[in-house]
Fold this sequence. Notes:
The protein is α/β, with parallel strands linked by helices. The protein has one domain. The protein has helices at residues 19-26, 49-57, 70-96, 107-110, 113-121, 151-154, 166-184, 201-216, 236-241, 243-252, 269-273, 277-282, 284-288, 303-314, 316-337, and strands at 8-13, 101-106, 158-163, 232-235. A four-stranded parallel β-sheet has the order 2-1-3-4. It comes from Polytolypa hystricis (strain UAMH7299).
Amino acid sequence: MGSDAPRRFYLLTYPRSASNLLVRILNLDDQNVLPAEDYDGSHAGYFFFQAMMLRTRLELSGKAIGEWTQDERSQAREAYQKGFDALNNYVNASEARGKLVFVKEHTPLLVEPVKETNFVHGENTSQETPWVVKTPQGEHQSALNPTILPDEFLKTWSPTFLIRHPALAYPSLYRAVRDMAEKEGAAVAHPDTLTADMTLHWSRSLYEFYIDHLQKYPDGTSSAQLDAEFPIILDADDVIAQPAVVLKFAKMVGLDTSKLKFSWDPTSSETLEHMRADMKRMLSTLHASSGVVKDKLSTSIDIDEEAKKWQTEFGDDMAMNLEKWVRAAMPDYEYLKARRLRP
Length: 343
């Protein structure tokens, strides 16, 4: 890869993985980065959030794609395409202004519906051709690619995967989903609608997609914005307890390390008043903090003991689901964690 090639950095996360904490520390607002949060078509910087919200409104979350109506399919395809178009416009605008492209997206938001169906409901539930958005790079999609984005578009990015211990991330996500549902007077999400979020399957699949690509082009001569340093894996524990890891990462993606922030003022009540209820709930810990909270580590977590706490907090059925999801995710978590960036 030529040293003068523009770089696009994709931070691929999942809900409750401390991604907002990492972005706060990186202080992107003061870096040479066009704010994605304010860009048309994004929701708090997530370009495919609206597609997820549409699926939620249409009650398609967790529903096998074979049961979707033609109208629902058309609406979903349009929403995914709009998400891509907004992302592509943002990338083009950033590069035209000489900005560093740095985008954070929750990997589950990118997951292609046919592959999601076969993961949630069982392999070969759907034989339908996987969906893919239309892009300037084409529409080819390989077996290792679990997303609605084509291979060639993914290869234009230098990816970083942020992971967090499932026994911390998954109960936290369910807690937030439950609280928001109760606030809105809605029914709490059925476990089937959460299965695709309570997994590291997508993160590992996409990581292996990039590894496979790098093995084919070990000298970095492909069209991808990749080199020997990527893909990178960050663990939330290191974001919280190892500032040296964050500093190293910031240098690798071309950020000004002198602008990193490990402390800040809590969010003002005035700002909170004008914030959407869902964002206020999802960012409640960060907004109330004045720096990195060190009690959010996964050190010495015992899943058996955590399961007892979930039983008390959430009841037997949800505790059973959480334990199932956490234990199923652990092999992927340990695989990715073993390959994480170190000081």
